[in-house]
Amino acid sequence: MKWQKIQQTASGKYTRWVLIIAGFTALPWIITVLPFFGANNYTYSQLNLWLILAIVCLGLNLLTGVAGQISLGHAALFQIGAYIGGYFVARQGWPVWLVIIVAGLGTGIAGLILGLPALRLSGPYLAVATFGFSVAIPQLLAGSQDIAELYSDPNELATKIGVLTVPKQNLPGLKADDDLGRYFMFLLVFLIMLVLALNINRSRHGRAFYAIRDSETAATAMGVALGKYKLLAFIVSAVYAGVAGSLFAFQVGQLDANSTSFSVLASILFLTAIIIGGLGSVWGSVLGSAVITILPPFISAVNDTIKAAFGSSIENFESIFYGLLILIFIYFMPNGLSGAFQRLRMRYSSDPSKGPATPAEPAATDLPVS
């Protein structure tokens, strides 16, 4: 009887993953029914940017939502991954899959450096420290002569003004500018990172992260090595940002250190996505990044409407909109979209005779110790 239940569970998981992969595969054609989107390169490029953002959010949610360490420095880690990936593709001609791995590992080292303040800081103090990192890295990449010489190419005018040209990458046999083909390449990387994030959350290390988030004092009493696991959370999260950064370089085809894609606003955008999706939720990271991806056309339409009605648009309307969105979700939906879907699922699937179902919490036992 027990073996039959195991078989049924395994079969259910297999079926669920088949449906998930099929849904992601069909998404480029499904999304064309939404407003502002059609069967064109803009739609496919937005899907690619969504997958990139989702990978960043998977790592950031592991750090902030699971381990409880606030970071406003992920735009800098994202930029480091992009520059590492861009350099080895544009200047060294390495294979794209090897470059993605190297970008992730190289950014992981940067994450180790970023995570060192976490050994002594927490809460808003840690947020300020990582914020400084996010401000410093773009300035370093934009103003360093050594880095400029490393990336410079006398045959390219763009490098003389601080812009690195990166050959766009795609699946073998497809054109470099084919965003639809690139979607499937990014999808493969995304699915690998998604499965990895799910396994980390359910592992002994994931339970250690949850323990640190809930109470550092209690985690220490249970034998969890705080410094070790805080650094581990930063390193793993940075690897995700680095992988996403390399994909971003392959998507846009050029890198500018002063781009808003690497600014502090990007770090806030990453944080907004995981708050909307749900802190600590792997699938919430995917949902939140999807919302952030489809919002810009809607925000522009709202701002245009305001301009038509009152004669002038609102300055920095996009930043104001995201700020209000964070406040709304924190107040009315603190567990994000994933929490809302979970409550709906429990409401309609629970047995009334047994009372309302409660979400599963990570086990407090079997924690890794130093």
- Fraction of helical residues: over 70%
- Helix and strand composition category: mainly alpha
Gyration radius (Cα, Å) is: 22 Å
- The number of distinct β-strands equals 2
Average pLDDT, all residues: 82
Shape: globular
CATH topology call of the largest domain: ABC transporter involved in vitamin B12 uptake, BtuC
CATH architecture of the largest domain: Orthogonal Bundle
CATH class of the largest domain: Mainly Alpha
Query: What is the assembly state of the chains in this entry?
Result: single chain
Condensed summary:
The protein is mainly α.
Description of the structure:
The chain has helices spanning about 1-30, 40-65, 75-90, 95-115, 125-145, 145-150, 180-200, 205-215, 215-220, 225-250, 265-275, 280-310, 315-330, 335-350; strands at about 165, 255. Helix 2 runs parallel beside helix 7 and helix 12 crosses helix 14 (about 335-350). The chain folds into two domains: about 1-35, no CATH class; about 35-365, ABC transporter involved in vitamin B12 uptake, BtuC (Orthogonal Bundle). With about 375 residues, it is mainly α. The model is unreliable at about 350-365 (pLDDT under 50).
